[in-house]
């Protein structure tokens, strides 16, 4: 069995070794320009068109991340260049859920407990009591109730926040999380929310979802947390909503252009936290174990989870 590995940063050697160790008998290699040789499995992140060219024996493509937008393209153009009949498989959690819960919980609590405002007062040497927020009156809306969104929603509910979440398909919520779906559900989910968390996949249906219309539905002075993809956020709308006070601040981990360009206005917004796409990192050991486990299952003729619905885009 041949496993071909690609990453634009070229840091594929540990995956070659790890997958070879986990799958005795497997031959692993890193893609080099011009390699159009046969492979049973592709393991990749942000592939170029050459890597995705049809190749003999290919059975499945494993994405070394949860989001497959870099493979499919936001307008679906990438889907057309995928080899026909080959499953695209994404990472399911693989250690990202716990990281996402930590990151988002911290951002929500920091805003809820007014810690940025207190830091500004400290910088001025001012001792001033700020009225605390009441948690029961602090609804948080989470867009996306999948592998990561459900964990984040559950974590925030466990802290005591009234949590609403939004998914594509209608289904029951979970303890202390009210679940909405569809266009009507969207409005109810976000209306009056004090914090908005985005954990949707980037697809033609969800691109630009964080826009002026949505910001206007939130509570005045709400807070935005985007940990999904930069293509979800209309950047100019966020800056305008922050200028008007409708949005008090934001924590952004993902951007339309990454790394965020040095002259981007987001760097200079005092109430905006910028982090370099690291709210939930792909963890090497967990990733190798998950992909190797699924390859072994496929080789035994068993079904696996995490297969992307190409039409839906996630
Ligand atoms: P997932 O399990 O596929 O969950 C996606 C959720 O979004 C599902 O609840 C789905 O609804 C919902 N959804 C999709 N399209 C929708 C639509 N048009 N309307 C309403 N709901 C919709 O994905 P995941 O593993 O939780 O990951 C989510 C995203 O997080 C990834 O795609 C990736 O972009 C991002 N991410 C970011 C980082 C980072 O470090 N910043 C790390 C990992 C992942 P259903 O439940 O009905 O299908
Ligand atoms: C990271 O952004 C991922 O999609 O796994």
UniProtKB/TrEMBL annotation:
GO molecular function: NAD binding; oxidoreductase activity, acting on the CH-OH group of donors, NAD or NADP as acceptor
Keyword rRNA-binding: no
Pfam families xrefs: 2-Hacid_dh_C
Stretches assigned to the D-isomer specific 2-hydroxyacid dehydrogenase NAD-binding domain: 107-279
Keyword entries, A-Z: NAD, Oxidoreductase
Signal peptide: none
Name of the protein: Glyoxylate reductase
């Amino acid at each position: 069995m041949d496993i071909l590995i690609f990453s634009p940063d070229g840091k594929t050697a540990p995956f070659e070794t790890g997958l070879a160790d986990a799958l005795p008998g497997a031959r692993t290699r890193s893609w080099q320009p011009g390699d159009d040789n046969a492979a049973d499995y592709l393991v990749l992140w942000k592939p170029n068109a050459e890597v995705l060219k049809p190749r003999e024996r290919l059975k499945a493509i494993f994405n070394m991340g949860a989001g497959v937008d870099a493979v499919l393209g936001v307008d679906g153009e990438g889907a057309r260049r995928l080899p026909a009949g080959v499953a695209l498989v994404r990472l399911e959690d693989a250690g990202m859920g716990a990281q996402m819960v930590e990151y988002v919980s911290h951002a929500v609590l920091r805003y809820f407990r007014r810690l940025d405002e207190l830091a500004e007062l400290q910088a001025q040497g001012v001792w001033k009591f700020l009225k605390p927020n009441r948690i029961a009156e602090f609804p948080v809306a989470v867009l996306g109730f999948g592998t990561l969104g459900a964990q984040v929603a559950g974590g925030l509910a466990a802290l005591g926040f009234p949590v609403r979440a939004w998914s594509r398909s209608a289904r029951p919520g979970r303890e202390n999380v009210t679940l909405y779906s569809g266009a009507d559900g969207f409005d109810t989910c976000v209306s009056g929310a004090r914090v908005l968390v985005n954990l949707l996949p980037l697809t033609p249906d969800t691109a630009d979802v964080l826009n002026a219309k949505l910001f206007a539905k939130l509570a005045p002075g709400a807070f935005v947390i985007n940990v999904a993809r930069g293509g979800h956020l209309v950047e100019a709308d966020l800056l305008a909503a922050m200028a008007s006070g409708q949005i008090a601040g934001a924590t952004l981990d993902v951007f339309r252009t990454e790394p965020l360009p040095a002259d981007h206005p987001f760097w200079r917004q005092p109430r905006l936290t910028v982090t370099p796409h690291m709210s939930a990192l792909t963890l090497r050991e967990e990733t190798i174990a998950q992909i190797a486990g699924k390859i072994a299952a496929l080789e035994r003729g068993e079904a696996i989870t995490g297969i992307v619905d190409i039409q839906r885009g996630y």
